[in-house]
Specification:
With 166 residues, the protein is an alpha+beta fold. 54% of the residues lie in helices and 18% in strands. Among the domains are: 66 residues, OB fold (Dihydrolipoamide Acetyltransferase, E2P) (Beta Barrel); 43 residues. Strands 1, 2, 3, 4, 5 and 6 form a 6-stranded antiparallel sheet that branches. A hairpin with a 6-residue loop joins strand 5 and strand 6. Helix 3 packs antiparallel against helix 4. Keywords: Membrane, Transmembrane, Transmembrane helix.
Length: 166
């Protein structure tokens, strides 16, 4: 059976449509990448101190008072180095007043972050949220359903893990 050659305008229209689809997929992929990079960027500020304490600035903090989403209390250094005697921590990283938490000081501040598995998972919560958002973009926008489900389940696992570990 002989094939009929398509007209020049038909071929141009098909290639333009293909270019639009490619551009759409590239744009949606960039949105997903920006979401993930923003999640890592936001999480890394606390995660680096929770995972890799610098200069031995680790110790324990006893939660004494909480107000305006911050809790404060005395800090006891493990290394005996110079450290502020009173430190602050995000209220979401604590449980109750009187709790003693293993923490690491952010250099040059009086802020601390929790260490250990709970502290590490808590510091990566923004990245978990970014994974969940990127899952919707990848699964719906790029129509990569399995990859979207994997991203979403991973993000939810990080957030639930932090909730359980704290």
């Amino acid at each position: 059976m002989p094939t009929k050659k398509r007209s020049r305008s038909r071929r141009a229209g098909e290639s333009a449509y293909g270019a639009l689809l490619l551009g759409r997929n590239i744009l949606i992929g960039l949105v997903a990448v920006v979401l993930l990079v923003a999640g890592v960027w936001t999480s890394w500020d606390n995660a680096q101190h929770a995972m890799f304490p610098k200069d031995g600035n680790t110790g324990t903090m006893t939660v004494e008072a909480c107000s305006d989403s911050r809790c404060s209390g005395p800090f006891v250094s493990e290394s005996g180095g110079s450290a502020p005697s009173d430190v602050r921590i995000n209220e979401s990283a604590t449980r109750d007043l009187g709790d003693t938490l293993a923490v690491s000081i952010k250099p040059g501040t009086d802020e601390v972050v929790r260490t250990g598995a709970g502290g590490i998972l808590h510091s990566w919560i923004p990245f978990g949220g970014a994974l969940a958002l990127a899952a919707v973009v990848v699964g719906g926008g790029l129509r990569m359903k399995r990859t979207g489900w994997t991203l979403g389940i991973s993000g939810i696992a990080v957030m639930v893990g932090a909730f359980v570990a704290l």
